[in-house]
Automatic annotation (TrEMBL), chain A:
Claim: Chloroplast is one of the keywords in the record: no
One Pfam family, short name: ABC2_membrane_6
Keyword Transmembrane: yes
Protein name listed in UniProt: ABC transporter permease
InterPro entries per UniProt: ABC-2_transporter-like
Membrane-crossing segments per the record: 30-51, 122-139, 145-174, 207-228, 234-253
Origin organism lineage: Bacteria, Bacillati, Actinomycetota, Actinomycetes, Streptosporangiales
Entry keywords, A to Z: Membrane, Transmembrane, Transmembrane helix
TrEMBL record, chain B:
Name this polypeptide is given: ATP-binding cassette domain-containing protein
Subcellular location: Cell membrane
Membrane topology: Peripheral membrane protein
InterPro entries hit by this protein: AAA+_ATPase, ABC_transporter-like_ATP-bd, ABC_transporter_ATP-binding, P-loop_NTPase
Organism: Nonomuraea terrae
UniProt-recorded Gene Ontology molecular function terms: ATP binding; ATP hydrolysis activity
Any one GO biological process: response to antibiotic
Keyword vocabulary terms for this entry: Antibiotic resistance, ATP-binding, Nucleotide-binding, Transport
Main localisation: membrane
ABC transporter domain span: 2-255
Record Pfam families: ABC_tran
Length: 265, 312
């Protein structure tokens, strides 16, 4: 337990250092946040345009879809802000930088995570939280303390699900297997399918997105609970799935780490 | 302090094909190429020694260092560093060793040197008073003051190396691995690095393992060397024992006979005699029988001895 707190403290220290390093390139930072916000903003603008023509998608109104979209985006941002530098893993492995993480008395994953801060993802967070706040008031939700608490837990659970798939795929780079394209694809599936009511895809797709790549658990199922569209006790377990998947992903990471070969001889 | 026995590391990768559809065949092949980088290496290193770990490029030096530091897991063999198995007790082992890779900095590229050092201090849980004491000593020893506040990316190679050395010993590890710490440095900077190593090794407190291609480093610092090539140990012992050959007299003659006093003419038309005692007498007796065109005396040196071993 003491080691967990130590790791957390050192992670914050490393992350602050990398932020100081990154903030030297001020224009980069501003462009990064703006492009993140604009990218996600256009995604939602598209829904807005569609909803202008069809006022309801599978029984969901604009405010409800906005709430779903905001939930997904906030979870996505929270998953990627700490993990963004894990995305660099194949370069870090290729140029031998990963060696130095193994030479220091701190979990190499924590060091890799602390290597660079995700900046564009703060743009995602900005748009996500804004959508949640606005949609939370405009959709027909009878808020109470319990529901607010569930929202927080659901966001964290969703973030953990995304983080788990991301981490497991990234860890393959430790054996020089390049999964960058696959990661972009999975990220795309999460964002393109995760931000709409599953029902509109129907049948096989809905089943695949629930039980194979559990996109539905990130935002669709929790949002359905909050919006009163789904009332099964099992749905409340959705956030738990994130914890289980992250634990599995970490096991995969550990396993790949044993196969690390470094570069050069 | 370090015990290595039967250490072997085999790298395995898919075979690459060339020619038509080469890329595709490389992608689907199940054939693998194996390369034995370290082959049944054994040695022991005692506390306080400065060891020169030498070998040509690709000999297996860096692979050995990477196994000893816990970066790589060996294919077979046992390693014990301070009673620990480095790749299994990675995190504990890390606290006992300092590592400098001359080819690659371990500092934070965008941060001033002092911040990198503070981060290293935090990662190794160095308490503040000990950190300040250590830093002060290193500032004097390595002359860090002039570039302590400069971002690492703007440092010269010599300054960067001094920064890397400081980061490696800041937490006072009993064991120091230096992988080509003088590569690419000018004469003055090399001298500074050597002085630092001597100072750190001090009264035999810090054990140093040094790999380098600059034999002047080795002559200045190491009493003992381990020579490896193609992953095998070729020599392990005192430098004195290695360079213990007699001086040689090299002569060229006008007449160029097949042999002179039992020494055959070599490919360059020279005759090489080992000098055992009476050099003037030797020269006189050769001069009495032949007309000498040129004559020189060669001292044995580490470089030619090692070159001799590599090409053997």
């Amino acid at each position: 337990m003491a080691e967990v707190f130590r790791s957390l403290r050192l992670y914050v220290l490393l992350q602050r250092a990398s932020a100081r390093g990154a903030l030297q390139y001020r224009l980069n930072t501003v462009i990064g946040i703006l492009s993140g916000a604009i990218w996600q903003g256009t995604g939602f603008a598209f829904i807005w345009v569609v909803m202008h023509t069809f006022p309801s998608l599978a029984g969901w109104g604009l405010a409800e879809i906005a709430f779903l979209y905001g939930l997904r985006l906030t979870a996505h941002a929270l998953a990627m802000i700490p993990l963004m530098s894990v995305n660099d893993i194949q370069w870090v492995v290729r140029n031998g930088e990963f060696d130095r993480f193994l030479l220091r008395p701190l979990n190499p994953l924590v060091q890799l995570m602390g290597n660079r801060m995700g900046i564009a993802q703060f743009g995602d967070l900005l748009v996500g939280v804004t959508l949640l706040a606005v949609a939370g008031q405009n959709a027909q939700i009878s808020w109470n303390a319990w529901l607010i608490a569930f929202c927080f837990v659901a966001i964290i659970g969703g973030a953990l699900i995304e983080a788990a798939f991301f981490l497991a795929l990234c860890s393959l780079a430790l054996r020089m297997i390049d999964t960058f394209a696959l990661r972009v694809f999975v990220d795309d599936v999460f964002s393109k399918f995760g931000s709409y009511p599953m029902k509109i895809f129907g049948g096989v797709t809905e089943w695949l997105l629930t039980f194979v790549l559990p996109v539905a658990f990130v935002a669709y199922i929790p949002a359905s609970v909050v919006l009163g569209k789904l009332d099964t006790p099992l749905a409340l377990a959705a956030p738990l799935l994130g914890v289980v998947l992250v634990a599995l992903a970490y096991l995969v990471w550990r396993r790949q780490l044993d196969h690390y070969q470094s570069v050069g001889h | 302090m370090i015990r290595v026995e039967g250490l072997t590391k085999v790298f395995r990768r898919p075979r690459t094909f060339s020619g038509p559809f080469g890329a595709l065949r490389t992608l689907v092949t199940r054939q693998h190429v194996e390369k034995t980088a370290v082959d049944d290496v054994s040695f022991e290193i005692h506390e306080g020694e400065v060891i020169g770990y030498l070998g040509p490029n690709g000999a297996g030096k860096s692979t050995t260092i990477k196994i000893l530091t816990g970066i790589l897991t060996p294919t077979s063999g046992t390693v014990e560093v301070n009673g620990l198995v480095p790749w299994r007790d990675r995190s504990v082992n890390a606290r006992n060793v300092g590592v400098v890779f001359g080819q690659r900095s371990q500092l934070w590229w965008d941060l001033p040197l002092i911040e990198s050092l503070r981060l290293v201090g935090a990662l190794y849980d160095v308490p503040a008073p000990r950190f300040e004491r250590s830093l002060k000593k290193l500032r004097d020893l390595l002359g860090l003051d002039e570039f302590l506040d400069t971002p690492v990316r703007q440092l010269s190679l010599g300054q960067r190396m001094r920064g890397d050395l400081a980061a490696a010993v800041l937490y006072e590890p009993p064991l120091l691995y230096l992988d080509e710490p003088t590569v690419g440095l000018d004469v003055v900077a090399k001298e500074a690095v050597r002085e630092f190593i001597v100072e750190t090794n001090g009264a035999g407190r810090t054990t140093v393992i040094l790999t380098t291609h600059d034999l002047a480093d080795v002559e200045a610092l190491c009493k003992r060397i381990i020579l490896i090539d193609h992953g095998k140990v070729l020599f392990d012992g005192a430098i004195d024992a290695l360079v213990n050959e007699p001086r040689r007299l090299v002569v060229t003659l006008e007449s160029e006979p097949e042999e002179v006093r039992g020494v055959p003419r070599d490919a360059e038309g020279r005759y090489v005699f080992e000098i055992h005692d009476d050099l003037p007498g030797m020269i006189a007796s050769i001069a009495a029988e032949h007309t000498i065109r040129d004559l020189s005396v060669e001292e044995p040196d580490l470089e030619s001895v090692i070159k001799g071993i590599y090409t053997r």
